[in-house]
Design goal:
NADH pyrophosphatase activity, NAD binding, single chain, Aminopeptidase, hydrolase, NUDIX_hydrolase-like_dom_sf, alpha+beta, 7,8-dihydro-8-oxoguanine triphosphatase, disordered N terminus
Length: 286
């Protein structure tokens, strides 16, 4: 998750209180929720850090600040123990930094939890011969059980759902596609490290047909007649796959309308993002 901050520094390295005593504190910026963010980049001795941190916490408490975020790059791992001893706790980590947090007020803590969900996509790619693009995986729960499945994967940070679906198909099979719709999504819990999952079932149109499978994760890939794919015993036993097949048939035969991405602007950010909606029904009622 990200923590928004004001563009100008709130505090300097040195603060003079009452016009007499100069107290050195950590440089920080305001966040958007009454707290401060300390983004350390330069090496620092742990004892000096402890002294500055205590002075800073006293100052921020006098200012009426709430949450204190400390972003420690992996190079400053020596400061983690010092921060924890002062009452900070882990909030989240990325490959190159650890975010620690502290709540100053005596009231209940309102710091949002770490990101709770992983977002995934599954891509149904159906050609004009009513063949579906399927793979067998080299690893994971589907390895070694003989099941042909649709390409799936995780949405990367900053990536749109439709972009992830197109990318995963290309990576696993070499097939270029055009995104059509989200047909459905599934919400599950207690997955990877106790997190929840949102998985989006997507329909795509193939733009190429010669398969070039990925060697690292994919055992085999092929265009399979849809009826043969649907009749796999596993698909009849595993209810989410059974519904996926029914949705695909409803789309092809009965005009089932899913959600397609529509770029929208926002008051809060400059970049466009996508709202997924039933464009067919919306446009017909406008």
């Amino acid at each position: 998750m990200s923590v928004s901050a004001s563009p100008t520094p709130l505090l300097g390295d040195r603060l003079c209180e009452n016009g007499y005593e100069c107290v050195k504190i950590l440089p920080a910026t305001n966040d958007a929720h009454g707290g401060v963010i300390v983004d350390l980049k330069e090496p620092m001795d742990s004892e000096l850090f402890a002294t500055l941190l205590r002075s800073s916490l006293l100052h921020w408490k006098k200012q009426g600040k709430d949450g204190v975020w400390i972003k420690l790059p992996i190079e400053l791992v020596n400061l983690v123990e010092t921060a924890v001893k002062e009452g900070f706790w882990y909030h989240h980590a990325e490959p190159n930094y650890l975010m620690l947090v502290y709540w100053i007020p005596k009231t209940g803590c309102t710091i949002p939890p770490n990101a709770s969900h992983c977002v995934g996509v599954g891509a149904i790619v159906l050609n004009d011969k009513k063949e579906v693009l399927v793979v067998q995986e080299k690893r994971g729960g589907f390895h070694g059980i003989g099941v042909w499945k649709i390409p799936t994967g995780v949405v990367d940070a900053g990536e749109e759902i439709f972009e992830a679906a197109i990318r995963e198909v290309k990576e696993e099979t070499g097939i270029d596609t055009e995104f059509m719709e989200v047909l459905a999504f599934r919400h599950t819990h207690n997955s990877f490290f106790g997190k929840s999952d949102l998985s989006f079932v997507c329909m795509l149109r193939p733009l190429s047909f010669d398969i070039k499978k990925q060697d690292l994760e994919i055992e085999a890939a092929q265009w399979m007649p849809f009826e043969e794919f649907a009749d796999q015993p596993f698909n009849q036993m595993h209810e989410p796959f059974k519904y996926m097949i029914e949705l695909c048939l409803a789309k092809v035969e009965n005009g089932y309308d899913g959600f397609s991405p529509r770029p929208v602007s926002s008051y809060f950010v400059e970049e466009l993002n996508c709202l997924y909606l039933n464009s067919h029904d919306l446009d017909n009622t406008s």
